[in-house]
């Protein structure tokens, strides 16, 4: 009964989302305020129905209703309740339901928090959001229904959630990531509204910036969390594999980053308007494209979803309609937008233009690298795989100049600046960074590592320019701290975001250059020394989890005779799927991670063991967190206080 | 001309989308599992793993100058059981077979071999599937034909039976014919 109710709620949500699409759009055409206002309650209705549907699917999972095909394939009665809960989005069908729930959630947020928008703009934005939801509801109901029953002979027991997904990271990672992917739809809808109404000004950019920033922050957090999960769960010490699925999330992020920056120019200087529009359209288009690549089965990947060409055809048709019509609209309407005022080569506009070009370039590189094997394969030219060497090379070639320019770029003034004004700050930063980077390299590494040197130099270069900018911003105030207080939250957001880039870069370059790894054969009582750490294997023991049993190694780590940590790597055997999983034992702090994984059982109770010391690895994710918080902090700025304005409006009416 | 430039994004997108439609059509006739491995005509990847007997082993033990079938299997894999009798016939007729025991608990693998018979010279234990990733394994069973120099010349995803041998056999025979003289008796 419960799954049927969920199914019914989903169908009703589809019907209401059709109304949400057509009513406000028709209202704009007829200039009927009532129809335009109807968008808000309709959006609320769609959200509630989708939410109910999602809750009913959750209940079915928590109650072990294995008559549902989807539950039988992805859950098990022995799973702890929190994994039953997250198993709902552990595979294709349920994750699409989560996706659409988040989509209508964003729509609701726009409906509720946009009281200060002109009625027409809000009506069109909600109508476009509704149309997107219609597409996904149809997709779920026609090709990927999680409420399908296995009747009349239901399964007695579920075949369990993939053990790799039985993890805290996977409870949180998809929702965060989808918040980002789907959040970009708001930028898309605003762009469509701007094109339809022929209105694109600084105010438009001000409405859109907070939405874009929040979506971008979620996307950043989601990607970082996914990479962290890959690091400790796949257990090979790597954290980014340039896998097609990872690339699918990276591409919208790259364009989203470009969009966040070009919106700044559009808001402050009323410029780059066409470009901003294109970025807004493409960032979400790439989210859709990623969905297609991951779920249609055209690409192979270590962690692609179970694939089905029928679904592929559906998503492709849907994304062709969405992207094709929006780009057609762009072609037809963009000339109505007034041209931008000019600017001179030395200005913040130029720096941000370079930023955008670089991010678009990187996104193209990732797209080409992801599609190239497919193109070669399709035209019968054999098969190739494009691996990390290609991506790493281009990432280095593109990000090095980008980051070198980013640092002085944030010192530059809008409209017109002179290099003479910032040259001393940059010269100072350059010399100090160079000396400090070289010192650091000699202290940390026995032989000269160019990667380490460049990483350290650029990170310091960024931080010193940031500090120098802080000094510039505060020099007119009575005191440094009085000046700091006066700075806006959006300024702090930028500083924090850019600091995050530096931190992340330290993590990437230092951990890559300095990681030490050893493969050993260890018996109880054996010890080993690596990088001043003394590892003693105390024992191997058998432990039981709720739905698995595991061999566990107990390894005590000391440094200079002082206890550091006890590390417990496991080799788990999940009974329902008879699958084995390596659970790395990690002891980490700010400066280094100690990662131990158990390999093969050898004769007479010894195991093959891999020990790694990875300096600064966590900085990769700390940096990403700084970036995400920077994006959120900027939204908290006074000038975006949508809620305050909306409430005022309600009181008056 | 400049006016038409605003349609450039649309044109680009139409091109990409048409390609995807084409790709989906191709995939319908030729699902991923039947794709040739990216490693065809490339050397068998380097590895350092253990055998089922617990001995350390690397690529040199695999590449001995003899044409070899490398069979990816697991005790959990029903289809592997189905192809086992045919592989046994091949082994008895003198084909060298090496197993890759793929993502399998060791005791289960040994029990399986005791029950159905061990036809391989030895089994490489790929518990984590790391070698499988380097090889581009989609799932068990898979069978690779390796030439005398250790190059992968053929790959079959799925079971090897007499129907499949009609394709794989000629490749095998041709490679044996090219094999340097005298090595096979050593």
Helix content of chain B: 40-55%
Give the termini distance of chain A in whole angstroms. 44 Å
SS-based structural class of chain B? alpha/beta
N-C termini distance of chain B: 73 Å
Helical stretch tally of chain B: 6
Radius of gyration of chain B: 21 Å
Instruction: Using the CA coordinates, give the radius of gyration of chain A.
Output: 27 Å
- Largest sheet report of chain B: 7 strands, mixed
Query: Biggest sheet of chain B, strands in spatial order?
Result: 2-1-5-4-3-6-7
Strand composition percent of chain B: 15-25%
Shape of chain A: globular
Query: Main beta sheet of chain A: strand number and arrangement?
Result: 6 strands, antiparallel
Number of domains of chain B: 2
The secondary-structure class of chain A comes to alpha+beta
Structural account:
The complex is a heterodimer of chains A (653) and B (186). Chain A is α+β, with helices and mostly antiparallel strands. Among the domains of chain A are: 1-166, no CATH class; 516-615. In chain A, 64% of the residues lie in helices and 11% in strands. Chain A has helices at residues 2-30, 33-37, 39-62, 69-74, 81-87, 92-113, 119-143, 168-197, 202-233, 244-269, 273-295, 309-333, 348-378, 388-409, 419-444, 450-474, 480-486, 489-514, 619-635, 642-652; strands spanning 516-522, 527-530, 533-544, 548-559, 562-567, 570-574, 579-583, 585-588, 592-601, 607-615. In chain A, strands 2, 3, 4, 5, 6 and 7 form a 6-stranded antiparallel β-sheet that branches. In chain A, a hairpin with a 3-residue loop joins strand 3 (533-544) and strand 4. The longest helix of chain A has 32 residues, at 202-233. Chain A is globular and about 80 Å long. The relative contact order of chain A is 0.08. With 186 residues, chain B is an alpha/beta fold. Chain B has 2 domains: 1-30; 36-180, 3-Layer(aba) Sandwich (Glutaredoxin), CATH 3.40.30.10. The longest helix of chain B has 22 residues, at 8-29. The N and C termini of chain B lie far apart (73 Å). Chain A binds chain B through residues 236, 278, 281-282, 285, 292, 296-298, 300, 302, 307, 309, 312-313, 316, 319-320, 323-324, 327-328, 330-331, 334-335, 373-375, 377-378, 382-385, 519, 573, 578-580, 582, 599-603, 608, and chain B through 3, 6-7, 9-10, 13-14, 17, 19-24, 26-28, 31-32, 35-38, 40, 48-50, 54, 76, 103-106, 108, 125, 127-128, 130, 133, 136, 138.
